Amino acid sequence: MQLEARRAAWQDAWRDLGTTASDDALLAQLETRYAEPHRAYHTLQHLDECLEGLARERTRALRPGEVALALFFHDAIYDVHGHDNEERSADWARQAMLDARVSPDAAQRVHALVMATRHQAQPQEADAQLLVDIDLSILGAPAPRFAEYERQIRIEYAHVPPDVFEPRRKRILGAFLAREPLYLTPSIRATREEQARHNLRQAIG
Q: Which end of the chain, N or C, is surrounded by fewer C-beta atoms within 10 Å?
C-alpha cells in the first residue's frame, strides 16, 4: 500500500465515524511508531497488509470505520519486553476517538477490537472476528512471505536464546493450528485456511 492509499484509508475511517476532520498529525505519530527501529514485522508493512485485507473484505464489516481505526492502532505500542501492548494501544485509540468527539460507544467498541488482537481466544462478535482474521492473514500468506514473517519475528526477539525462543514459538503456532477453523470469516477461510495450515505445520516441523 502506498502512502497515499494509507492516508486515504485513514481519512475514510474517520469519515465513517462521522467526522471529516481526520488528524494528520496523529497519523504521523502512528507511522513513526510503526517505523521504530526495534520492529521487523510489526511495521508499516504489516499495517498496510492489514489495510489491504480490510479493503478486500470491507463489505463484510458491520462498522468498517471502527475496524479500520482498530487496525491503525492495534500495534501502535509494541515493546517486546512488555505485556500490555494491546491495552496501551487500545487506550490510545479510545482516547483519540474521544478527543475527536466520536461517541463513547464507538470509542469503546474500537478499544475492544484492539484488545481482541491479544489472540487469547477467538472472538464472538462479527467485526472482531474480521479484524482478528485480517491480523492473522499472514499465517496463510504464500510460503515466501510466511518465511519472511518468521524471520522478522525472530529478529524482534533476537535477545531470546534459541533454546527458549524455538519451543515457545512452536507452542504459539501450534495453538493457532489447533483452532478449528483458524479463520472465522468465510471468505478469508476460503482463501487462507489451507495455506495457513501448511505454513504452520512446516514451521512447527
A: C
